[in-house]
Amino acid sequence: MKLYGYFRSSAAYRVRIALNLKGIAFETVVIDLRAPQRAQDSPEFRALNPSGLIPVLVDGEQVISQSLAIIEYLEETHPQPALLPATPLERARVRALALAIACDMHPLNNLRVLNYLRAPLHLEDASVNDWYAHWIAEGFRALEQEARHLSGDGRHLYGTSVTLADVCLVPQMANAHRFNCDISPYPTLRAICAHLEALPAFARAAPQAQPDAH
Ligand SMILES: N[C@@H](CCC(=O)N[C@@H](CS)C(=O)NCC(=O)O)C(=O)O
Questions:
Q1: Is 64 near ligand 1, meaning CB less than 6 Å away?
Q2: Residue 53, ligand 1, Cβ within 6 A
Q3: 73: helix, coil or strand?
Q4: In the predicted model, what is the mean pLDDT of residues 128-148?
Q5: How confident is the model at residue 110 (pLDDT cuts 50, 70, 90)?
Q6: For the whole model, what pTM was predicted?
Q7: What residues contact residue 48 under an 8 Å CB cut-off, 6+ apart?
């Protein structure tokens, strides 16, 4: 399998974690999102994914976009270890946590959104950083409440084993660190991430562990 990604892409980070957890070998194709490269805008990459977003997984002849769709594909093709629980209700709870991050938080702070705030809308860096921190705080405040009820051991966002929710949480926390957001109000989320980040599958997927980070 080939994963089109970039060390700083938190959506690609989710997929790297899932691939590692499931023990699936993959090759990374680096799509450098930074100007002036902006490889996401190249005709070759747009032919693969017209939205110009990473990650993209290529499995044989098949091209799959959207990190959560990719992870659900991996879950169905490589069921063990399971990232979704056994019952429909539990699966809905885990997906709700994952979607709270992937749909309600992450898109608001994506690179192209920040670039739009800076260029056409002329926002200063300080205002863009406030925007970033605001949406992190909105999302994490709610997730901290959820985690207090749903974590079974203070080491996982849901229950007592690694799920799709954890796969989304750790990269989002990395984004919060990168943009110097105040994460002191979220002790439960911080404890969960501290545990997860030390697991080999998460550690190998971390941005700083990727060859393109250097
Ligand atoms: N919903 C998509 C989001 C993908 C996404 O936003 N990727 C970012 C990197 S984390 C990207 O490619 N940004 C390029 C840009 O903003 O120009 C997913 O989960 O895969």
A1: no
A2: yes
A3: helix
A4: 98
A5: very high
A6: 0.98
A7: 4, 56, 58, 63
